[in-house]
């Protein structure tokens, strides 16, 4: 069911832990399964991610995706990290069972939420980064138009 890479990252997670005084911290949860993922980023003055760590209270696929996605963003600039999507993460793991794809989404959301925290603290804007949604049961209706006229 799981690829060898998923098993490897699940059994030997990389970058597990916390970063003190992190440049950005992101916490996301999946309301469906209740799993929680927390990502810590250490970002240097040039905007390069020096270190990334995670704590995941969740399923094996969530642990494996946190592990590999932290590996994938270390050494990248903030802007490059924005390009790491759950698709890349899933591919890097040689795929995930269809039922587990939402778990990889958690990693992408956690990274973005940590980047958002970083941007807030620095008072900067990261291209393409939107405010993370705290409440996943609520959907934004920014584009709701009641075409009444
Ligand atoms: Fe919840 Fe995988 S089952 S993140």
Question: Your description of this structure?
Answer:
The protein is 37% helix and 15% strand. By secondary structure, it is of the alpha+beta class. The protein has one domain: Sufe protein. Chain: A (Alpha-Beta Complex). A three-stranded antiparallel beta sheet has the order 1-2-3. A hairpin with a 6-residue loop joins strand 1 and strand 2. Helix 1 crosses helix 2, helix 2 crosses helix 5 and helix 4 crosses helix 5. The radius of gyration is 16 Å and the shape is globular. About 7% of the residues have low confidence. The chain binds FE2/S2 (inorganic) cluster. The site of FE2/S2 (inorganic) cluster (FES) has 10 residues, from helix 2 and helix 5.
- Count of DSSP strands: 3
* Structural shape: globular
Strand order in the largest sheet = 1-2-3
CATH architecture: Alpha-Beta Complex
Low-confidence stretches: 136-146
Order of helices and strands: HEEEHHHH
List the total number of helices. 5
* Largest beta-sheet details: 3 strands, antiparallel
Helix content: 25-40%
What is the CATH first-level class name?
Alpha Beta
N-to-C span: 54 Å
Cofactors and ligands present? FE2/S2 (inorganic) cluster
């Amino acid at each position: 069911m799981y690829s060898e890479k998923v098993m490897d990252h699940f059994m030997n997670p990389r970058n597990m832990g916390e970063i003190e005084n992190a440049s950005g911290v992101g916490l996301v949860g999946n309301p469906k399964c209740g799993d929680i993922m927390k990502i810590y980023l250490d970002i240097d003055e040039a905007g390069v991610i020096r270190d990334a760590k995670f704590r995941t209270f969740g399923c094996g696929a969530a642990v494996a995706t946190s592990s590999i996605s932290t590996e994938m963003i270390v050494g990248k600039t903030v802007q490059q990290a924005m390009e790491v999507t759950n698709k890349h993460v899933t591919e890097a793991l040689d795929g995930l069972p269809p039922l587990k794809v939402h778990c990889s989404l958690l990693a992408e959301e956690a990274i973005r939420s940590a980047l958002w925290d970083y941007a807030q603290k620095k008072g900067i804007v990261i291209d393409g980064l939107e405010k993370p949604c705290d409440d996943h049961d609520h959907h934004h209706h920014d584009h709701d138009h009641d075409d009444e006229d």
